[in-house]
Structure formats: structure tokens, C-alpha cells
Amino acid sequence: MSPLLLLLLGLLSLIVCVLRGRRRSVRFDSGWFGREDEPPLITGWIPFIGKALEFGRDAHTFLKEHRKTFGDIFTVHIAGKYMTFIMDPFMYPNIIKHGRQLDFHQFSDKVAPSTFGYPPLVNRKLPGLHTEMFRTFQLLQGDNLGPLTESTMGNLMLVFRQDHIGEAPSAERGWLSGSMYEFCNSVMFEATFLTIYGKPASASRHSEMGGLRADFLRFDNMFPLLIAQVPIRLLRQTKASRDKMINYFLPHRMSCWSNTSQFIRRRLELLDQYDSLRDVDKAAHHFAILWASVANTVPVSFWAMYYLVSNPEALEAVRQEILDVLKLSGVDFSSTKDVTLHKDQLDKLIYLESAISESLRLSSASINIRVAQEDFSLRLDGERSVAVRKGDIIALYPQSLHMDPEIYEEPQTFRFDRFIQDGREKTDFYKDGQKLKYYLMPFGSGSTMCPGRYFAINEIKQFLCLLLLYFDLQLEDGETKTTADSSRAGLGILQPTADVRFRYRLRTV
Ligand code: HEM
């Protein structure tokens, strides 16, 4: 963060502190100070910023260390907000089902419009829009998943065939070298884009895709600051990239695209019913969906590919499972022909699914947020309750669960079959001898749970199927282990600290 921004935030904080100073129960060695029924409060010495910098550097370690001192529930002062962390996974169900006193949407309803550049949805001038837009999420699930999956398959095959497989006979193709993140990003970004928004009228691909990806990256790099509510006008380049991407979705452009998903067609129709929305406002909604659909899917694809390529036995087992499922349907795979895997075939790939779940477990660092609507006593389990103040944030941080050695033996290790038991998906995970209701939460929880989760898993499965079927894959010699960059903790899937060099060659089958 630049010194100017820190100074601005500091000044803002002083004003906020003077206007609405608060006292909490602060822990001293001799005991507690303040309201006893409130969780202990952890504050920093910098006004307003509080513990934001320490938390931002490595949220998982920060919470683990503070849990040792303060127990399973504590409040942390972060960038002007009071965030109460619930660290005991047996308390999660009570938070996830909590009724009118905890609002799931207030935080995202406030932050998303300024980040993506559309007017707030909860707005008298836009009656019903919030509810209707929420309803469109159903078009990513259930029966709608079939057509989406077929379309993804075609688009992935198109990008693979034109960019990586080519028409040459396999014997003539030697090893090619690539950067793994860049590879996943170029394939998944474009295939997702084509599946959701469609293709231009007179071509099978959008010629501006490279530019769009570059602008997306520039915007996404500053995403943590935007979510922290730093005004975008202070980030000139980020604003320019966002404007370019929004302009790509202007109605006169989108109306020329074909093969657009039912999900986006419904959203176009809906947005058109509101005269008070300008064209750029409508376009900004489509841009927000682009971010939601690729910002996490790309890094998960990377981690799954990286772990499989780094573990050749796991890769071979998963590849064999895919070949077996194809064979069961009467398909003898050949790298000279295009392949299709339908939704029911993808559902049978349980080892592949387990490898993806394991990659999600190792790389996901999202935060689940609810905002208290009034001062009230929050029941945590049969015995415990804590006092919560109106406006406070109640937060679950599932990375603590994903990395708990009591739940997952050797939690830092990738085990591709961790989510398989007796030839089926494993759903029994225990802590303190008790079965957990929630043990893997990369997609959030409750009513704000990711509506694109089934589509995302199918898409990642399809990507990995094509990769493993068509290519021999290896890490480049001397390539060292990459790690997850914790600086985006709280925002979803972590990215790698550095890209990884790998080589790939068309398989001779
Ligand atoms: C592996 C990939 C993905 C991961 C890990 C992921 C994760 C998440 C998470 C953690 C949330 C917030 C949940 C909460 O606040 O509790 C979310 C929300 C959302 N996701 Fe995903 N997501 C993925 C892929 C997708 C895809 C492919 C789409 C769309 C095509 C999508 C669309 C959305 C939308 C629209 C929301 C906002 C929902 C709302 O406003 O209630 N996501 N996602």
C-alpha cells in the first residue's frame, strides 16, 4: 500500500475515532477490561488500521497464533471494522443458519458496486432488481448445468486444438515448454468467456482476448485494495483497465454475440427493463460476472494441474480413471480426434474430483462474512453465547479448518485420494472424535454460497481431462516447489508466489 494511501486512511481513522470512539473488553495479563460477555478484543496501535497489516500479511498464522492466546472466539480491529472470528468448526452451523440478526448480503451489497462500477442494487430507483438478479443464479445450476457443460467442452476443445494440439500428427510434435499459470489462465479464461458470453457473430473466438486478459490481470492485482474500499479514482491504471473491460460488455456489442448462455441472456433481458440504468451500468454487471467466473477458477485449475504434475503416480491414476470412464461408454480415446465428456461421465470421475477437492483445500482462503443487524447475544453452541454489537462483522475463516492436523492428517501434503473412502466420495471427517458438518468450504456458506460452484467443478474437471488425455506432462528440470501467496488471504483462492515451468508433448495414442 502506498504511503499516501496509508496517510489518508490514518487521517480518516482519526476522524472516525473521534466521532465514534468505542470501548471493548481488552485483555490484560491481570484479566479482562470492559463488557464481560463480549469476546476479547485485539487492537493494534495504528488508529483505524488496527491489525489490518498483520492480518493481511498472513491471515492463517495470525488467527492460529491469536487462537492459542484468546481461545475460539475473539474480535479483531481491522481497518475500522470489528471482526469477531469464530474458530471452532462445531460452532459454524449456528452462524450459518442464523436468522434475521445476521445479514449475509450487507457486506457484498456495499462492496461489489464500488469495486465493479455499477450503482447499488438495493436502490429505490431499481425496484426488484436485487431479487431478480439473485434469481438468475439458478441458471448456473440444476438442469441448466447440462447445456453449460456441453458448451464448455466445445470451447475448451477449440482453444486446446487451435493453441496447443494443432493438426500435425503426434509423432512430429516434440516437447513444448510453458509457464503453468499462464497456460491455465489463457485456456480457462477464454473457454469460460466463450461459454458464458458467447462468440462474435463472424468468428469462433474474440480477437481482443489477449488485451482483455491483460486488463483483467491489472484490475485483479489491485482487487484487495478495492475490496478494502480504496476509491478507484486513486488507482488510475486500474480504473482505465476496468473501464476498458466494462466497455467490452456494452449492449450494442453483446447484441452481436451468439451462443450466449441462458444465464447471461436472462440478465441482459432483466437489465433492459430498468430505464434508469445507463448502458455502462448494465455492462458493469456483466464485467462483475466475468470476475466471479474466472478469478477463482483459474488458480484452482493451476493448483490441481501443479499437484498432479508434481505427483506422477496420482496423475497416472486419474488419467486411467478418465480412460476407463470413456471406455465404459464405448469410446477408445485417440489424440488425433476430438473427445467429449458429458455431465454424467464427469460425475463418475471420483478420483479426479478428490484431487480437485484436495487442491481447493490447500489453496482456498476465503472469509465468510455476516453483519450484525442489532445488538444481540449470539448463541454459539449449547452452553456459550457472546454479545455482539450492531454493525459488527461475524467471520468464519475456513482455512483454519482446512489446515487443522486433527481433521486432515499432514495437512500441508497433497493426497489426491484424501476425499475417497471404500471407492466412494468420503464425507466423514472428525475433530475431537465428533463428526464435522462442515469440513471443506471453498465456496462459502449459507445463502451467499457460490452459485457457480457446480459449473466451476465441472469446468475444472473438463480442463484436466483434456490436459491428461492429450498430453504427457512434466515439470521442467530444476523447477522448485511453489507456495501459495498469502497476501490475498480472505479473498478466495490463493495464487502461487511464482509461476512454474513445465513441458508437455502430445500423447501418441
Ligand atoms: C473454483 C472456483 C470458484 C470458487 C472457489 C468460488 C468461490 C466463491 C465464494 C467463496 C463466494 C462468496 C461466498 C460467500 O460470500 O459466502 C462466491 C460467490 C460468487 N460466485 Fe463463485 N467461486 C468459483 C467459481 C465461480 C464461477 C465459475 C461462477 C460463475 C459462473 C461464480 C459466480 C459467483 C457469484 C455470482 C457469486 C456471488 C453470489 C452472491 O452475490 O450471492 N463463481 N464464489
From TrEMBL:
Domain of life assignment: Eukaryota
Residue positions binding heme: 450
Major subcellular location class: endoplasmic reticulum
Subcellular localization: Endoplasmic reticulum membrane
Signal peptide: 1-21
Residues reported to bind substrate: 296
Cofactors that this protein relies on: heme
GO CC annotation, single: endoplasmic reticulum membrane
GO molecular-function terms, A-Z: heme binding; iron ion binding; oxidoreductase activity, acting on paired donors, with incorporation or reduction of molecular oxygen; steroid hydroxylase activity
Pathway: Lipid metabolism; bile acid biosynthesis
Family: Belongs to the cytochrome P450 family.
Name of the protein this chain belongs to: 25-hydroxycholesterol 7-alpha-hydroxylase
Organism encoding this protein: Collichthys lucidus
